[in-house]
Write a structure and sequence with these properties.
Blueprint: E1 2-5, H1 15-22, E2 26-32, E3 37-43, E4 46-55, H2 59-62, E5 67-69, E6 81-85, H3 86-93, H4 96-99, E7 103-106, E8 110-118, E9 131-134, H5 135-141, E10 154-159, H6 165-172, E11 191-194, H7 196-199, E12 204-206, E13 209-212, H8 215-242, H9 244-256, H10 261-298, H11 309-334, H12 339-343, H13 353-386, E14 396-400, H14 409-416, E15 422-428, E16 438-439, E17 442-444, E18 455-460, H15 464-468, E19 472-475, E20 487-491, H16 492-498, E21 507-510, E22 513-521, E23 536-540, E24 548-553, H17 558-572, E25 581-582, H18 583-589, H19 592-626, H20 628-636, H21 641-675, H22 686-712, H23 716-720
Parallel strand pairs: 4-9, 6-8, 18-23, 20-22
Antiparallel strand pairs: 1-10, 1-11, 2-10, 3-4, 3-7, 5-8, 6-9, 7-8, 12-13, 14-24, 14-25, 15-24, 16-18, 17-21, 19-22, 20-23, 21-22
Helix pairs in contact: 8-11, 8-13, 8-19, 10-11, 13-19, 13-21, 13-22, 19-22, 21-22
Amino acid sequence: VTATFYRGAYALPLLAGEMKKMFPEVEYATGYVGWIGWHSFSAGEKKTKLPGNFAGNDFFLMFSYPLMEGNKDTALPNANSIAISAKMANILFGSPEMAIGQGLRYENERDLTVTAVFEDLDALSSDKFDFILHWDLFLEKNPWLTDWHNTGPGVFIKLSENAHVDGLRSKIRYFVKRYDTQYAKGDHLELALQPFTEKYLHSTFENGAISGGRIEYVRLFEAVAIFILLIACINFMNLSTARSVDRAREIGVRKVIGALRTSLMKQFYIEALLFTTISVLLAVGLVALFLPQFNLLTGKTITSPLENGAFWIGIAILAVVTGIVSGSYPALLLSSFKPVAILKGNVRVKSSGGFRRGLVVFQFTITMIFIVAMIVTSQQMSFVHNKNIGYEKSNLIYVMITGTIQNSYNTFKNEALQLPGVSDVSFISQRPVEIDNTTTNVVWEGKEADTKVKFTQAAVGYDFMETMQADMLLGRDFSEESNDSASYIINETAAKSIGYKDPIGMPLSLWGIDGQVIGVVKDFHFNSLYMPISPLVLRLKERNPNGALLIRTEPGKTAVALEGLEALHEKLNPEFIFAHQFADEEYAFMYASEQVIKKLSGYVAALAIAISCLGLLGLVTFTAQQRTKEVGIRKVLGASVPQIVVVLSKDFLTLVILSSLIASPVAYHVMNQWLNGFEYHIGLAWWFFALAAGGVLVVALLTMSFQSVKTGMEDPVKNLRDE
């Protein structure tokens, strides 16, 4: 069970120990950092930098990570212990067996002992880490987390077998009140429980309640799959109907020799089920064949469920339901033919024409919605990629500050600026694409006592604005010529929240440090476009900075700049591996899921068009067969092939146009809801819907023309002959 604070998906660092102590229902509890951090390690001459996390003593008792060496009860006995993966053990010690009990150096500042070695994590694991450090070490490195009013990491608890979950929920809701001296009615934490099995898919919270997450994508593609299947069922109905004239004599003969309508219906149902079964087997084979490519496209590691009995039961149920649904209309229609009329060659299907046309309208309505979704998704991703986020993300590199760089930052900066290809150097306390350190402890002149405004804050170095290429609206950047140790730069949103008409020179206090505003920077995005730009306060910290080095390279010279930077890093910080990230790549990675949606929506739209056109072709073929004599008479009276095409196609073009009229408002609503998930997004332009409708009309017209031209070119004598 995951304990989360009521306003979000994180909890309090001290919560795990207190819950285990205070509630008998809690068998195990551990804090857990919700974000994976990359840390440097060395053992003798060997060194590496790998991703990992922090957790408490109970971590390996709660989770089923298999240990190759060590014991779960003593996997993390104290702050000087570490559990590592087999991969990390092989890198630093040669094997898991040789790693146990050995010492290694953490961030070149602390010696740790390997107390456990766990198997390398499976590709299906949602968290990927190569080491677990002790929770007490995390608290040592972040003393601000010992304040009960601060939040950040997550908390996992495991309940005993006989625990009453609902009872525990009510007991823990206001549990923090007894510890938090700042607990107030308007700004307080309420605890809730979330099953761990729901954590990955249900990760978004709003007002303390789960409001979505990755589950939205699962539901989206479930809906898409259902609609595609419905379109396929409609196709089967229309194509079966189109073949009704060909099978009419068979039905007539069978009825004459005594076949009952029920036996005929049974036959058609069996045929539909047979087609469905064959289709399912082919589909399963194709899924197994293309699964590696699908995993490559989506970045997931989905395994084939062919050995899972529940999968085959589900597939069997799906096949039966699909066969019955798709076979019902043909079975009812074909079994209703009158044998006398059939044997006289007078087969006419006048009933249910509205139903068949309704199926076509439904098909093309869904198809157009898919096309609009593809267009809107593509346009929004283009908007995200090209949007001016307030600073220039191209040619911007950041390197996490490690080891001696923290103490020799000025030396690194001065020498880096002499390297070819490097134009500017500064630093920031967090990654520039994701600054999320917030506080309400900001005071300004005229602030009312009960006003609670959440500010995002970050520490930066000199030349920050120039390195980021952000725009100053008022005032100046931090300057070495001025004493800016207690000066602040705020963004436009912060200026509006504070309410200063002329902010420059006005007093401002952050965490009790009194200073003044020296500049106002134009709003820039320091988080996802799903989130609004929040009030931002930037402070200066030139001594012993931590966070990320920001390096601006000259266009076209990034490679040579990186070569020089790596050599400089090796000289000044030899115990640590040089690792860098590009700001534009990190920004794009934030929208990786949306890029996948964009690609998949294109494939879905193409598939829907193809299937719908097959159904339309079936209905046009059926209509042409029903109007064979009419076409023959028109040709005898002088009608040309284009005129025949118009006669046979105009009714169906009307259906496609009707589909467009129905689909447009539905697509507008659906895509407007999706776009509203972004705080910054495109508008829904009229041409999105016009393009989708035009595309559907053109493809439908080509489909109808194929059969109509074929019918119009047939010999009228043959069509008028009555056998």
